[in-house]
Amino acid sequence: MTPSRDILRLIEIMATLRTPVTGCPWDLEQNFATIAPYTIEEAYEVADAIARGDFDDLREELGDLLLQVVYHARMAEEENAFAFGDVVEAITRKMIRRHPHVFADKDGNIQPAGVKSAWERIKAEEKAERAARRPPEETLHKSLLASVKAGLPALSRAMALQRKASTVGFDWNDPRAVLKKIREEADEIEAALDRNDKVELAEETGDLLFALVNLARHVDADPETALRATNAKFERRFAYIERALEAQGRTLEQSSLEEMDALWNAAKGEEKTPTAERAQQARR
What are the coiled-coil residue ranges (predicted)? Predict the structure, then answer.
């Protein structure tokens, strides 16, 4: 099999990978739930390539993201739900419907001022149509939280859910009360560790993360931004360890945890020194 610019080749490759017995064992083991995290990850990789202005990388990452669409479509086809062609048809129908000012007949053009209002009206119609297709029991109760988009990243969605609930008073008034809740969740994780219950540990870890987002909200810190800053800090300090060991003619594998931890603390010390100096200068 050879590479191709034709999307049909990619669909063929995925079908081959998912063919029982002769296909790839790893690909055959996957399902929608196990592939979903990779789909989200690839979307972030696309955004990162755009942020860096790296078009070579963007080309590769868009291909990886396209593979995710083909993967999900293939699994759906195996369950006789829909195929890749149905995905393409659905999005082309949607785009044509949402742009009547572009695709309308000569007598159906919309003035530029009416484009946005038409877009919102059509989206509302589509939303109503999707709701009508759902089982009756799903439409009986309209939750206050229903407007929070399900596709948001977990940290952002936790923040949005909490903000929405707070509009009706379901909230703490003191960040210290949230901190108490965080300690409670940590204690529950410790109890789950004692029981060695992996399912419970995953659930309790989620509860702790949700509580941490709540604390971030109460102290006016964006959790996504805060975590990105911490990720960068971790990378910076870990790189310090690598450079320090390299200067000694050693590798990470040749070093003990205690030695790496000491270098980590040294990196922290170097980062704090400028801050302390600035604070001292400010007091003068």
Answer: none
